[in-house]
């Protein structure tokens, strides 16, 4: 599991964008002003209908470090990251959301973590909200039913600053997608991620695969990014709920014990029926989710067998 020490020039920073014209320029600029600079910045546009493709093309014309990929269609977060990972030239992949901001320490400190721990497959940085004071996540974790949660979410960073020294290098279940830094040597098999995931849990899947390959995800608070959380989330709360539930159930089928899969499918069915009184279309929405899971059942169980 040993490899040559990584340097910042070994890093391919990856941004996947969809209709982020009002936030993307700040994300790109934050990466390009890092010192020392990464080897390249790969920007994937997932078929945006705003001015994002033009913005990306112009950035690439101004700075040769920017490598644009205009997908022409919405491949989803996982699909966009797969495309970029296949195109990138670096030995380390660092992911920033289009609504993220790279802090000065992000890459240098992440490499410090990777280089000192030969079993570190990914680094989970300290992710702060856009105010720079509130925590978005300090390492991410899963419960037995596949619900993910970000440690200290919404809490003031100042209240936890004294803990960072003791938490540095500790293991978490997966890295938050915005800011995660992932080695390639030894983890080539991680890619591609499952592109049927509707939006969430691609970072969770990455963390689970890293663990099954004998590596780990470590939290490193000195590496920092900021995140304008929720920029690309569905405006409708119910749409967001069902999208998140579908992603979680797909994750369960692929990686969790069958007992948890069955329990959660039954629970969701009961939830759909019991919710009819307050939301008449609840059962119809539940059935539609079941249909999508069943449609992809063979593909999901194939991934399960591959990663058993």
UniProtKB/TrEMBL annotation:
Keywords: Glycosyltransferase, Transferase. Residues 12-133 form the Glycosyltransferase 2-like domain. This is Glycosyl transferase family 2. Gene3D superfamilies: Spore Coat Polysaccharide Biosynthesis Protein SpsA, Chain A. Belongs to the glycosyltransferase 2 family. Pathway: Cell wall biogenesis; cell wall polysaccharide biosynthesis. InterPro entries: Glyco_trans_2-like (IPR001173), Nucleotide-diphossugar_trans (IPR029044). It comes from Sulfobacillus acidophilus (strain ATCC 700253 / DSM 10332 / NAL). SUPFAM superfamilies: Nucleotide-diphospho-sugar transferases. GO terms for molecular function: glycosyltransferase activity. Pfam families: Glycos_transf_2.
């Amino acid at each position: 599991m040993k490899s040559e020490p990584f340097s910042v020039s070994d890093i391919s920073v990856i941004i996947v964008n969809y209709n982020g014209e009002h936030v993307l320029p700040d994300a790109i600029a934050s990466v390009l002003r890092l010192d020392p600079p990464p080897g390249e910045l790969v920007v994937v546009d997932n078929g945006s209908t705003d001015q994002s493709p033009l913005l990306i093309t112009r950035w690439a014309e101004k700075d040769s470090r920017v490598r644009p990929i205009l997908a022409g269609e919405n491949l989803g977060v996982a699909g966009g990251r797969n495309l970029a990972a296949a195109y990138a030239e670096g030995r380390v992949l660092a992911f920033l959301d289009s609504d993220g901001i790279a802090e000065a320490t992000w890459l240098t400190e992440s490499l410090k973590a990777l280089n000192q721990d030969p079993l570190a497959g990914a680094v989970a940085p300290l992710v702060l909200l856009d105010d720079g004071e509130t925590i978005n996540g300090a390492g991410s974790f899963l419960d037995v039913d596949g619900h993910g949660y970000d440690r200290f979410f919404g809490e003031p960073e100042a209240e936890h600053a004294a803990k960072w020294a003791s938490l540095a290098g500790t293991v978490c279940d997966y890295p938050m997608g915005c800011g995660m830094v992932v080695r390639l040597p030894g983890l080539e098999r991680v890619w591609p991620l499952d592109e049927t995931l509707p939006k969430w849990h691609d970072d969770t899947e990455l963390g689970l695969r890293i663990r099954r390959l004998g590596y780990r995800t470590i939290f490193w608070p000195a590496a920092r990014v900021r995140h304008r959380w929720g920029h690309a989330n569905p405006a409708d709360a119910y749409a967001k709920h069902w999208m998140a539930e579908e992603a979680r159930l797909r994750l369960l089928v692929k990686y969790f014990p069958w007992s948890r899969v069955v329990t959660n499918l039954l629970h969701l069915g009961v939830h759909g029926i019991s919710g009819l009184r307050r939301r008449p279309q609840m059962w119809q929405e539940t059935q539609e989710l079941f249909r999508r899971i069943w449609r992809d059942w063979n593909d999901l169980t194939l991934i399960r067998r591959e990663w058993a």
